[in-house]
Amino acid sequence: MVDIPSSPKTAFLAVPAVLSRPHSHNSELEFDSGMNTSAAWTVSLVNPDGSPRLSVNGSTNPATPATVVEEDIDPAESVDGNDGALEEEIRPARALYAFQGKAEFRELTHVEAGDQLEIVREDVGEGWSLARLASTAAERDEEEGGRSEIGLIPRSYYIFTADFVYSDGLEVPPHHTRQRSRREASTGSITPRGGSPQPEAKPLVPQNTGEWFPSFRRSLLGGKSLNRFSSFVTTGAEEFVLQGSSTDPSATHPPREPTEIDDDGKRESVLGNLAEAERHFVEAGPSWRAKVPPFRVLVHSPNKRTSTLSGGYTMYAVTSVFSALSHSRPASDADSDENPEAAEEPPESIRITVHRRFSHFVALHTALTRLLPGIALPPLPEKQYAGRFSDDFVEARRGDLERYINRVARHPVARYAEVLTFFLGCESDTEWKKQLPYYLSLPPKGPSFFANVYHPAFNVDADEASETIDRFVNHTRAVGKGVQGLRNIFGKVREARVEMSKAERLLSYSLLSMITAKPLASAPTTGLSEDEEGEQNAATHGHVNEDGAWCWREGCESCLKLTKAMQKTSETLQIVADLYDDHARRRQLATHEAFKNVAHPTTLYAPVVDTHRSTLARYHDSVMEGREDEEMAARCETVLNTTMAEMDTYHTQKLEDFQDLAKEHLDGEIALYEQILSRLRAARKAFDQPQYDELEHGPRQPSIYERELEHPRLNPTPLSQPCPHVFDSAPMRPVSVAIQEGVGMILGAPGRASVFGKFW
After folding, report:
1. pTM
2. What is the 3-class SS of 416-471, one letter each residue?
3. Cα 666 to Cα 501, 578, 614, 714, distances in angstroms
4. Is 241 inside any structural domain?
5. Nearest to 269 by CA among 435, 389, 499
6. φ, ψ for residue 278, nearest 5 deg
7. Residue 353 and residue 318: Cα distance in Å, rounded?
8. By residue range, what is the domain housing residue 59?
9. Domain at 703, CATH number
10. Are 512 and 648 members of one domain?
């Protein structure tokens, strides 16, 4: 509990140090939530006959409940058909922090820390409360003509005065008055200005009016959500559901110089006119209708460049590979008869190569987010500031960008977006610099995106949509958890391949040491004690003859053939060890990186799920008996078609992704073991006739691996780990470790090629 000292207003309340001010809603950057402004709303403090309904000291009509009305609504009308009375007691409170709300969102404005409040409704949903400023009757009449401002305030921004403890001997200051400089006051006054005692009358007991908050939001907020930061609001789906969209799609584009002009003077895009490119169709399912055939994009050939303005950067070649089958005319029967091979010959693909840097991908992602608010776009790799020119990082970034652009290009709607066509097809640097600002200046589509979605009537059943979203959320959560486990296990599999490489290499060294009488500089590993190792080194005479054969007899052809065959076996084991090591570092690293394509589906589709569930709630409100709204229900159906089409897209992409992952892993394993088998079979043939007899000619030549016996390669460098996914949670590390690694990067410490290595 907090004591109230008899200090001025600025220090009237001692806030505990553990209390921290919540994030203010008045950010310097305006947040476009897609909601229209409307007039402020107040609480009526007068009866219909003009008499005061409630005074500060509670002496006037203390038993009359306050009624919430809009300024442009008749006070006699009820919010929910029963006088609209509030169902909770009005409780006094004080503001803990200054709050500058926005009138268009029905929030209290000009609230200073220490101001007295009257909490009309403590919980109206989503962490907000309904409150008004507690002022004297004179202030109410003088400032707002007898009507006090009422609005929303975060629940954490105030504390009830009943929670205070009054200390003995402290004089509580009179009624706190607000400074007149905060707002313009009117000239009328019915109560002398000055302090007045707190009301001692019992709190007002309002009449029971049934369900209050939904009616309040429906009549005063126009049905809009209090959470302005939910995806349902920010994508424009809420505004579309409540008000529709009368915006002409072509009017959302600011004027610019046309790139291609037809006979009518209209700008053309990949699908014809721009309006056609922005129309999206949902088929039965629901599922998106693809207008453009799929294609593949390659990101390759990174090279470092330098600019006088931005310094060094990496430029990537981006090649789009289109199948010529969709662009060529079908072969006729006459052509097939004249040239039978023409129908069987596969068409050549069309390739378009442009050069883009990472900032260009950021611009593409920004434009797509504004253009397609209802689409679950893949996340863009995070920007890197340190070590971004190392070979490991450049290769990892190249792979991440290639996966990103391919996931965008395979989406049936994003695939024919004009900005994507521009990104992949603009080969002129001059045209790129000229048109890029246009795409970056495009405003968010908002409700117009959903207005351009066309679908069959009655394509979604409400009960099925409700059950589908629950199944979808549970499924994606399970998939995300399983993929995280696979990523961790696959890392251990790669480590096991490196350990297998070390084992094969050690076996090769041991075999070569045995037939050459050269000791292996790793006695603990071979199991020999130091004394036994010394005796072995001293007794080398007679171990190998002059021909290098593993025999004490000179000129022994049988031992010479055996020694050469065993040396070949040792060299083959070295090759097998190299294959294991290379497989873990290259092929399996690419597969490990590819697991990010299927990671974190719950986070990626969280905006779609939020929009779907919020739309379902509005749909049920629109079909409620006595409150039917067929137009709103139809718009809700459009949004539900969009969200369910996105879920269908995830289903299709999940099938493709996991098939590709499984085939890539199996193909890599098959290729690895085929190479190993090929090498092992060649070594095995050395012991069979006639190859074995041919080994008796000439002395044995030293193996290239004999020089490594003194310094065996049994401590390989650590495996390179994939760059973390954007949604991965980076583990906390000690500050000392982070500082040491930072110093190591600056000084060029070995084994620290990529700063991402420690985060995985």
Report:
1. 0.65
2. HCHHHHHHHHCCCHHHHHHHHHHHHCCCCCCHHHHHCEECCCCCCCHHHHHHHHHH
3. 19, 19, 43, 28
4. no
5. 435
6. -105, 10
7. 5
8. 1-221
9. 1.20.1270.60
10. yes
